[in-house]
Amino acid sequence: MVTESPSDGASPRSDSTSDAPNLTSVPEPGPGRTRRIFRTLWKVVKRLLILAIIAGIGLAVYFGWPEVQSRYLDPITSNSQGVSDLENQSVQLEARIALLEQEVVDLAGADAGIPERLDGLDASSVEAAGAITELGSQLEALERRLDRLADELDGIATDQSTLQSEVAGA
User: What are phi and psi of 12, to 5 degrees?
Assistant: First the structure.
């Protein structure tokens, strides 16, 4: 380090002993010393702030974990279980739908023969109606014949009573 000697005004000289710490001299009060004090205080404050932040994070984790678990993790777990239940129900419903679709196919196959059977029944009912009409006509003819036979029987009964009274009176 190069220094000037204030007393003699001589040329600058090289001080080789200035690199070594000077234990005999008392540090001068001034901006250098206060700067070092503030720098040291700032380092201490930074370390205390870092420790406070770490402690705050640790306390937040320690006391906040149950809250996080109850607010976020438990609902996720219950929702996952609900999704699994819904998937199981979906599989069961799809199986039921497949069975119902098979029943529909079976019923559609059975329904295919119904129009033909209905046509056959319609034809049979027309035939039966014709037969009923014919039987009605025959019934009326039989009733008329029965009435005539009843009249003849009445006439025969009258003739018989007349003959019996003649035979008894003769």
Answer: -65, 145
